[in-house]
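In these records, each integer encodes one residue's backbone shape. Here is one protein:

___
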Amino acid sequence: MTTPRAAGVRATYAAIPERVRTWVDETLGSPVVQAHDQIGGMSPGCATRVVCADGTRAFVKAVGAELNPDTPNLFRREVLVLGLLGRHELWAGLLASYDEDGWVGLLLDDVDGKHPDLTEDTVMARLLEASDELGRVLVARVPDPPVPDPTNGGVTHMSRAYQAWQLALDAAPHLPDGLVPRWVLDHSNALGEQVATLAREPVRHLAHWDVRNDNLLVRPDGRLVFVDWGMTGLAPAWLDPLLARLERVEDPWFDRSIAWSPALAVAGDDVVTTWLACMGTYLAWRTHTAVDVNLPTLNEFRRTESRRFLAAAERRMDLGGLSARC
């Protein structure tokens, strides 16, 4: 079993309210007799494969505001997005949803698969192809995305990330020693200019926005499935292909692979390096400022990812001439 890159502490299926479990039984038309709780992802809610008395199988996700005040909105976003997308082999289809008294639940197709091992070259190659295909399918399925409304369960927008990056760059000089390297402080003005340039570019299409091995399943025949759509929003075409490569961001393979994606090749090396530097700085800032409710492993995940991204950005600074401009 491949270890998920992000793994929180989840509620069990037995621990979610009886009214939600009753909804599952009634919606599936047969009582649940087996519940296999899964790991992976940061939600404090349940993520459970269920089997009913009549043999029906499904996947259940459910979370309440008392577990975390923000996660129900992520689940509402996932319901919205999967409703817009319809069915496709690239993701698990939505069967039904529940939203009452602060609890949000999803019933999804139970995908016969496991988290992929992205250290295997053949599996990573499939992911790169699948992320490019996903971008094409999302444009075809939702050519005119809804207006972003991230605070009310609607899709988010890349502009929020750019704003957060700038806040992090401004705060970087005041962070405790060791959270960000000196080169980030020295280059913060130039990185801010790069962010401002990105923010001026139009963004019109949906992206999954959370491609990691714990948000992927590989079927027995090798096909990949993208799960967990709670971060979905309007983003540049290069975002999902970039995220798909992050499992190997420490390796020079990552730098070579940028040219293999049409969207990333058009965006260029400077955009990739800016993303790594600014996201790494943002995650470092959040380790110092975030208040995480029932998410005990999230801050260590931020620290780990921040170190990985900033080290990769420093390695790449001379690519595309960004170092000279900084």
Q: What stands out?
A: Residues 121-325 form a domain with the Aminoglycoside 3'-phosphotransferase; Chain: A, domain 2 fold (CATH 3.90.1200.10). Strands lie at 32-37, 46-52, 57-64, 94-100, 103-108, 156-157, 205-207, 216-218, 224-226, 233-235.
